[in-house]
Each structure stands twice: as C-alpha cells, then as structure tokens.
Write a structure and sequence with these properties.
alpha/beta, Oxidized Rhodanese, domain 1, 2 domains, 3-stranded parallel β-sheet, 11 helices, 10 strands, 32% helix, transferase, repeat
Length: 294
Amino acid sequence: MTLSKLTPLVSTIWLKEQILASLQNTAKLNNSLRVLDTSWLPDPEVDGYKQFYAQAHIPTALYFDLKKLSSPNETSAAKFPIPDSNVFKEYVENLGISNNTHVVAYDRLNTRSSFRTWFLFRLFGHDKISVLNGGLRQWLTDGFHVTTEEPTVEKAVFNVNFRKHLLRDFAAVMKNVTSQTEQLMDARPPEMFCVPDKDQPGGHIPGAKNIPFGSLFNEDGTVKSKEDLKKLFTEAGIDLQKPLVSSCQIGMTACGLIAAAYILGREDVPLYNGSFTEWSKLADPSMIVKEKQN
C-alpha cells in the first residue's frame, strides 16, 4: 500500500497488515518497518519503559525513550533540548532503524509524544516516519492484540541529514515579535495561553495565535479531518499560505500543530523548541502577554 506524501498518519488496519507482511517467512524482524512505542509523561519519576511499554505493547514494537534522548542540560533553557546528531544516530541505529526503514510511532496516552517523535525523525532527515492514528487506544478498540514480548533487532546504519531550518531559537522568535515575518502558533490550553491575573504564571509570546493541541482530535483520539483541521487554523487567524512557526509549553504539543499543518500541505513548519518554558525564563516580563489579543 502506498502512503500519501502529505499525511503523517497511518491507520491501525494498515499497520496490522504491514506487521504481518514484515514477519512473513521470517522468524526475526527486518528493518523495513519499525514500530515504536513512545509512551511518555513529563514526570521525571515516570519510567515509560517500565510503566507503559513493558506492561503491553503492539507486537514487534520497541520502546523509544524521549527522556533519554532529550534530557535537560545546563546549556539550554529548554526543558527538552534537541539531541545531538551523533546521539540520535546511535540511538536509532541500535533500534535497527536505517534510512530505508518506515518508522511508525504510537503511544497509549494523547499522541503528543508520537508527534514529537515524528518531528525529531524529520528534523534529522528521515521522512519515512508516520504516527498511528488514534494510538494504542484505537488499536485496542479495533480488536487487535498486544504483547509483552520484546523483539531483538540487529544494529543498522542511519545517516543524519540535520534540517536546521525546522528549528527556531529564542533570538529568532524575539526578532519575529517585531518583524512578524512568521505567524506564531501556540498549542497550549486556553487557560495557559491567557491568564486573568497578571501575577499568575502563564501568558503568551506577543503576536501568538492559540490552537489548543486537544482541539486537533476527535472524541475517539483520532485526528480530525482535513476540513476540520483547516477550520481550526482559520478560526485562530492563521493563514496557511504564509510562514508559520509552532510553540507550546515545552516543545511537545507544538509538534502536533506542525503535523496538522503538514496534513494541510505545509511540510516545513519549524518548531520553537524552547517554547514558553524558555521564553518565560529569558524574556523581559513586558514580552509576556497575559490577556487575549484580537
């Protein structure tokens, strides 16, 4: 089955068929398909491997540890810094991922870690990356089984092609506040984007437009149709024909807006990885807007 170039999503039925095909006539996994369980919570005490993946996962899946890849460091104000290219390269090679591997990311919670994984692979030059629409929840709803068996894979060779144009740093976003060259999207909930009390934590970067991450999904956790996604952008005052940049609180849910824009034909929307966590630490308080802007 050929996937559309303009969508980062695959269905549970499609994935089930591909898993069966990848295992046909062989007792071990090849590197043509790699399913990654990216289940994650920001709490440092939560071990995603032990508390999510090891309990049950989609057959053939391996665990993709976002915390290990993006651990905080003293040189960055971002909560989850972008990993070094060599670190990313070695990590995915040990998962048996080559440049020819079709990677499918999923999680059991709210898809934010799946979209972050999708973005990271594209950032490091890998376009054969998709997100399982609806995640583990949809997989189980469709009656497909899970397992605790952990597959073994052979190390692969992955060549990085880092796309720096997909990132924005604090200086670039600060400059954009004045130039308004790029429309800044913010994926945080409305109550974090705008706060009634000026002394309350929260607010947003001047000029930002709010499209809450949760608004991208249907009630069953699948991503909304193109028509509904486009309506969200329009109602937020975002012109999809003009330059965009995406942000949130810690650089996670912003990747969902990037994926939504990708579905709508905008394939190279950059991420402000530091997002509001970095902005609130480095920017002057006058550069934090508390109230809603028209």
